[in-house]
Amino acid sequence: MPRLRLALGQTNPVVGDLDGNAKQILAAAKRAAAAGADLFAVGEMALSGYPIEDLASRPSFLVASHDHVVHLAKQLLDAGLGDLPVIVGHPDGPYEPRLLGTSNAPTAIAQNRASVLQHGHVKAQYAKHHLPNYSVFDEYRIFIPGDELLVLRIKGADVALIICEDLWRDGGPVAKVLEADAGLLVVINASPFERDKDDVRLPLVTRRAVETDTIVAYVNIVGGQDDLVFDGDSVVVSQTGEILARAPQFEEHLLVVDLDVAEASDSELPEKVLRVELASTSSAADVIEPDIASLPDDREQVWNALVLGLRDYVEKNGFPSVVLGVSGGIDSSVVAAIAADAVGADRVYGIAMPSKYSSDGSVDDASELAKRIGFHYSVQPIADLVAPIEEQLKLTGVAAENVQARVRGMIWMAESNLHGHLALTNGNKTEISVGYSTIYGDAAGGFAPIKDVPKTLVWELARWRNEHAEALGETAPIPVASIEKPPSAELRPDQTDQDTLPPYELLDAILEAYVTQKLGRADIIALGFDADIVDFVTRLVDRAEWKRRQGAIGPKISGMAFGRDRRLPITYRPNNEPLPGAQTRS
Amino acid sequence: MPRLRLALGQTNPVVGDLDGNAKQILAAAKRAAAAGADLFAVGEMALSGYPIEDLASRPSFLVASHDHVVHLAKQLLDAGLGDLPVIVGHPDGPYEPRLLGTSNAPTAIAQNRASVLQHGHVKAQYAKHHLPNYSVFDEYRIFIPGDELLVLRIKGADVALIICEDLWRDGGPVAKVLEADAGLLVVINASPFERDKDDVRLPLVTRRAVETDTIVAYVNIVGGQDDLVFDGDSVVVSQTGEILARAPQFEEHLLVVDLDVAEASDSELPEKVLRVELASTSSAADVIEPDIASLPDDREQVWNALVLGLRDYVEKNGFPSVVLGVSGGIDSSVVAAIAADAVGADRVYGIAMPSKYSSDGSVDDASELAKRIGFHYSVQPIADLVAPIEEQLKLTGVAAENVQARVRGMIWMAESNLHGHLALTNGNKTEISVGYSTIYGDAAGGFAPIKDVPKTLVWELARWRNEHAEALGETAPIPVASIEKPPSAELRPDQTDQDTLPPYELLDAILEAYVTQKLGRADIIALGFDADIVDFVTRLVDRAEWKRRQGAIGPKISGMAFGRDRRLPITYRPNNEPLPGAQTRS
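The joint structure predicted for all components is written out below.
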């Protein structure tokens, strides 16, 4: 049986940065070659970053991508790595448009490809067959599907190559892997993190390995890109379903593993399978002990995803620092802790902005948080700024409450304008669901770290982060009072969230049914929830769509995040209901 | 030759409002029957509104849609219209999911269908084959394609039925129309307005009529739905390419026309064609003179689209009124005039908010605008509100300028909160392209009426609207000074837009190349533009993406509007460029 030393490069690309991403790949290839690899693969679109969205419809971008692949092959040769076959994902084109639609319509002109580089040339290419066009993915919009399977013959073994979604679908190239009798299947991926996705992804990889009687090597990119966080978690699974190697989540990594791959046969190839022979590298004499990382528990995974999502937004966009409002409440405390973990406390600026309704306890909690975490802390009371506005405009009620929130948002945006900080906004998924926030006020900011975290999970994460610190002998970052006191917006005397909203446990359960499970009113009531509360909550959700459309992006951690995952009209009149209005409630 | 009296109902549905939309269809069907129609058709998704987006993935919504179609058939029967065949577009499902993707992935469970109702029953159905998944459309995401053509035999004539995109694609059901030898092709549509789309749509309808040797009847919905405006413009074209009937743009209409349709033959049907025989209605004795509306010129079409887009957003969401800031500048003047045309001047509230940098001329122009249009006008000076903030936060430069804009936004949002007004924001496409606005300041609002109108077109529209008024003997709404003075944000002494930006003619030309034509840097320079200016402008566009993501929706009038039309990453590092930053500039 041929022994192949396979290296998988879990790189962290920046969308659009072809030069920088090529450098990352080159650096990882050098390490792979130094480790004696016979074959090296990086993730889907590792050269361009992912998702590139409608950049795929710019011919100049496709030409540049293509040129960079060709150039990367030469760079590898120049670096003395010409012998090492390198598999790299990238967009390619422009090709003849797939669709003959309206003359106005943009049509797909790109393919989602993997190129195999060796000896300074592109030796072979594979184009993704199955284009995900659900959830956050719009690949059918931008890519032309491929229809041929690629098999590489290396050192007497046959290595089939597919891309991401191809693995998930029955039939198509996966079916051909078995027919072609390949010994190793390399799948390059750009698969974003979701809670519990590891409960789906690893079993899938395992099932495919067993079904196709092939070792499956799954390499994923890592890093934050806008609202997605790619978790890496690259893995190699044997034909019997055994994990042979696994890279850690949420960090760049080179995974190297020795594989005994079935000998290639010379039976006839099935239709639509292309086999390309590659020159062999010299074999390593030693045997490598591969990494087999284990996954931490759910809360730690979520925390790590939120931290990486924020860190990469900050770093990839070149912000020196972040600013946020700290109220002493649980949301801002958790966001401050995430921010400090992401970029270091010395790049975090927290501002307490007490009003005449803020309790002393709140300011104490905020100051205690600052002390525990060590971020830059300042206080800007808002009473003298709000009073002239309230007076001149004769404001009362909700309009007056909103002005307090908007003056606060104006303060952190001004600090952002003065110092270049990225402004963070502290809204959690529950309040974003029901619109319990002031647009242009507390919702103001460029990034929303806990946007996809329901309130009940915010508390869980706070507790976990404190326990985690204590287990390491560090100071727990979040004051206990912030976790335990009843949540309040403190916009009027003695206000609590539950004056307006159902208890959070109940609210989150209804939101799970309505938003995530997409159940209708009757189905939710059939689960045992009170009809009036269901009507109240679902109406709030519908009416807050206009605010969500104007909300900051934030890391997706669930199977149904607000944003590209859930595309709903603002103007929407639920059947049998009176006019909902759309923008008055803010 | 059988003579068919065809009625096309250009209705204005509200997304989700199955009851209300069914009532519209029923009312139009009554008028069609009263006019002696043999066949009546309304637009694509006329029962549910369009686009329904991910409502198509809620099983309860699909069941409700299906039930409403069945119920509509009975309502037609009960209203004594049982004999009239009625073609109605609607979503249907849930069906077995099309995709076997990840277990987490939402999969299409709906079809985009047309039902033929007669005698209280659904007699036949057609499912759309070609699912547009470009520009603003995401139909491949949400619908399962059909694969059969439907032919209705009515009064000895064969009437083929297809849906919207099916007409645009060669092959598929259009090719079968010729094979099936149908005499009339009914196409139901939900086709949004774009400038110059009539230059594409009518020639297409004409070409298909000639190609398939079939009369083509094209019925479109009308009305605003979020950022889309459906223009109606339903039309019937003969086999020789003659326009037989045409409905006016931008209004509800019943178009009735007598057609001499080729006699049906009994030749064998091609594969995948279903023929359904319908009972005939009694023939009308008279001959109807059909409407043949003509289109107004480009500027008037655009104006009408903007007016209808705003009106329907207001009315469908139940707002009593609108509020906007009026600065005396061209943008707010045009928005005020659109608003008055949309909902009447007595439902428009304009607020002048002079700062210490505002010229007397500006306030005079705003007040003159109010007088000419007749909207509610008030003045809220901002100096006393801005001063305490500037002082407490020690603001200078851009940070101070932004605070002025944010105080203004806070004022109209407070008025919105107090009175339920929809807040309008006055940004034009040029400034939204380059981010020349203050987020949470002048960009604050629920709807942006001129969001897709470049600055140069804003001026053209202002001039056109004034000329139009004068031609009708009415007061020109927009003061000449607002059109002719140099544009300025008036956030610092003697500021003009051209301190910061290239001249608008030049800027709009570069934006057309970069945003609309999707050209790369080198291609734009090759058109003859200065390289430094191209770099300056394209960088501004890239860096403003985060602001656009948080911007209000507004009516799409171009082939490339910001929003669903143009999906680009925020985090994006153009190749060979230094870090662009993403959120500092605001």
